[in-house]
Amino acid sequence: MNDTFEDRLLAELKAEIVAREARTRAPGSRRIIRPRFLAGAGAGIAVAAATAVAVPLVAGQQTPAYALTRHPDGSISLQINEFRDPDQVELDLAKMGVRADVTYLPLGKRCADGRAPFVAGDHTSTSKEDLASKDPAVQARIRKEAQKLASARAIRSEHGITIRPRFIGPGQIVLIEINENPVPPDTAHPGVAWQFSGRLTDGPVKPCRVVDDPGAFDMGTAGPPPGS
Amino acid sequence: MRREQTGPPDFARDPDAFETFYRRHVDAVTRFLARRAADPHLVADLTAEVFLAVLDSAHTYRPDRGSEIAWLYGVARNTVLAQRRRTARELRATGRIAGRRLLDADDIARLEERVDAESPARLALEAMADLPDGDRALLELVAVDGLSPSEAAAALGIGQGAARVRLHRARRRIQRVPGVMELIGGTK
Fold this sequence. Notes:
The structure holds two protein chains of two kinds. By secondary structure, chain A is an alpha+beta fold. Chain A has one domain (5-217). Chain A contains seven helices and nine strands. Chain A has helices at residues 5-25, 30-33, 35-39, 86-95, 128-132, 136-146, 150-154; strands spanning 69-70, 76-78, 100-106, 109-111, 155-156, 161-163, 173-180, 194-201, 210-212. Chain A has a four-stranded antiparallel β-sheet. A three-stranded mixed β-sheet of chain A has the order 3-7-8. Chain B folds into two domains: 1-117, Rna Polymerase Sigma Factor, Chain: A (Orthogonal Bundle), CATH 1.10.1740; 119-188, Winged helix-like DNA-binding domain superfamily/Winged helix DNA-binding domain (Arc Repressor Mutant, subunit A). In chain B, 69% of the residues lie in helices and 0% in strands. Chain B has helices at residues 2-6, 15-34, 40-57, 68-85, 88-94, 105-117, 119-127, 133-144, 149-156, 160-174, 180-183. Chains A and B meet through helix 1 of A and helix 2, helix 3 and helix 6 of B. Chain B: This is DNA-directed RNA polymerase sigma-70 factor. Chain B: Residues 124-174 form the RNA polymerase sigma factor 70 region 4 type domain. Chain B: Belongs to the sigma-70 factor family. ECF subfamily. Chain B: It comes from Microbispora amethystogenes.
């Protein structure tokens, strides 16, 4: 590995630039951004990334934007546009008693693996071979198993992204990564509008080291998330 | 108005453009800092601080007013001065990216070599300590950091004429300090 201090610093600085751009873009440009969710309806599909020990879980499809909402059952829903100001989301969630670490990146970038430990409830017996399988039956089985994991109970792709605090253990942190396509897909140019992965961790959470995710634009053969 | 229209340069907004800028200059920046700090950890912290300051102050960069490196050394110089006003503890507490946290053993060894290689420059800078501030700043950037007099003037935000006068005065004074001319290469 020729990964040096200079490389690691560069990665942090690039993440800082992305975060700053997201912060400066978020407040003033809502009117422009909102239509992309309407225009992209039916075109955007997100794919749950898989790793050997646990499946980061949830996949989302865009819906018209509305505000962070607390439901009668205690669950909290957020819309993609709210994540463009990750610091604010963390603050808002903290006020609702949820510790969260939120990263907003353009589609095509992601945080390198190994940012934070997996919680015990996310370990699965699924083999590496199965996770890489293209067989729809195997993929469906993995998705079904994934829904039972601790993180999937706590973070779901309903009403945008829904967090269910009663499934978050003491001291656990909600780790969310949003990757939004800077070029909104439409019916003429279908594509991935945004992608999101969320899971629980006991911490500590390391800073996001931004790496390329060239496969993110590929809608592939993955179906919409179950129940959507 | 013009600033509103043009905005900060690409290297402060576009991660890929920033990477090009960073790779072009990161070695020069760590060497600049190794001439002013003998501790590899502090050099790492300062390197992170300098490039964060680049993002903060990119709107002050004017391509028509001298080279990138002149502007960058101006930023680096201000970062070092700010650091000297604080303690190391404060620097770590306020730094948004703690450079030293990103170091591994190989990096520390490499930065130590760089710090050693710059020890004559650190001696020269110490020898200049008694010069008046404005004169010293110019002599540092020209004789120790290798900028041209006009680049150094741009880095410090002063006019070319004033820079020439100060540089001349600084050279004359420093010649009276034994040993310094050898350290800074005499004729520079």
